[in-house]
Specification:
single chain; 289 residues; alpha+beta; Phosphorylase Kinase, domain 1; Aminoglycoside 3'-phosphotransferase, Chain: A, domain 2; 2 domains; five-stranded antiparallel sheet; two-stranded antiparallel sheet; 11 helices; 9 strands; globular; binds adenosine-5'-diphosphate; binds magnesium ion
């Protein structure tokens, strides 16, 4: 028999899909949190995506994600097929494994994502959606306080950082975070797919209300690291947002590994490799050295 989720998760999915039964399980390989993620085949031949929380953090994130699906109706959201709350909630979604999940990014994909983000931006956020927490994003002051984790990444010299830091802190402080638009905040190739004529965004853990450009800015470093255009080709003249996004990664990427999410630091470094030169170029700082 192949790999299967824990029996408790199987039983809960069984209750959600009854009178159908789960008959086969395939683990979803991408994603960065420790949540359980599976595609389940049911006794009538249909399939569903199963996401199960495993601790307090993933439980809170999954509740936010479910709340998005239950209070917003939009083609850019996966259809919600079931929900079982509790200590570790379980969410059942439309199975999108047959959709196209980048990378590679194909010609036209970037424009389609920008169109989808325009639709997100045009969606009035439900009242419960919290304002984006500025402190969660801002990072350069933490690097100033203890630059060692960041410098250990070897992306720049100490001399470069000493010269650049005041400019990065100021620009980041001037970044416009507040706004009235619905934002996803975690737009990345592992959180979106192309299904027929839909672009579908999954993983709404961090849904917030904010400046809509945050979603574009947060996506661009990963897009570039996956072979896409330079961030400023999509978002020119946004040095403050470049400083903000680079600061988010700069204060995290060099920290010790997270035991329950061992691939997070790696993807943060990759994004920082694109975000930091973007900030340097757009602020007119010396080239990284
Ligand atoms: N509805 C879905 N159908 C099929 N696969 C999915 C679906 N949602 C997510 N996935 C796959 O599972 C991965 C992780 O899911 P995600 O919800 O982003 O979890 P995490 O919060 O751990 O990042 C995605 O990168 C994608 O490969
Ligand atoms: Mg994800």
């Amino acid at each position: 028999m192949g790999v299967r989720p824990p029996d408790s998760l199987i039983a809960r999915v069984h209750r959600l899909v009854a009178p159908l039964r789960p008959v086969a399980w395939t683990r979803a390989e991408r994603g960065y949190t420790p949540a359980e993620r599976w595609v389940v085949q049911l006794s009538d031949g249909s399939t569903a995506f199963v996401k199960g929380a495993v601790d307090e953090a993933t439980a809170g994130w999954l509740r936010t994600e479910h709340r998005v699906y239950s209070t917003i109706e939009a083609r850019y959201l996966p259809k919600s097929l079931g929900w079982d709350d509790g200590k570790n909630p379980v969410l059942l979604l439309e199975d999108l494994s047959a959709a196209y999940w980048p990378p590679p990014w194909r010609p036209g994909d970037v424009e389609l994502v920008l169109d989808a983000l325009a639709k997100v931006r045009a969606t009035p956020p439900p009242d419960w959606v919290p304002a984006q927490d500025r402190e969660r994003l801002v990072g350069w002051p933490a690097v100033a306080e203890d630059p060692r984790p960041f410098l250990s990444l070897g992306l720049c010299s100490e001399a470069w950082l000493t010269e650049a830091l005041p400019h990065l802190v100021t620009a980041e402080g001037d970044a416009e975070i507040d706004g009235d638009a619905l934002v996803h905040i975690d737009v990345r190739s592992d959180n979106l797919c192309f299904s027929g004529d839909r672009v579908v965004l999954v993983d709404w853990n961090h849904a917030a209300r904010a400046n809509p450009l945050l979603d574009v800015a947060a996506w661009l470093p990963s897009l570039h690291s996956e072979g896409g255009p330079l961030p400023e080709d999509i978002l020119p003249d946004e040095p403050e947002l470049a400083a903000l996004i680079s600061g988010f990664f700069a204060c995290r990427a060099g920290l010790p590994n997270i035991e329950t999410a061992p691939r997070v630091r790696g993807v943060q470094v990759e994004q920082l490799r694109s975000a930091l030169p973007w900030a340097a170029r757009s602020l007119g700082l010396p080239a990284l050295g």
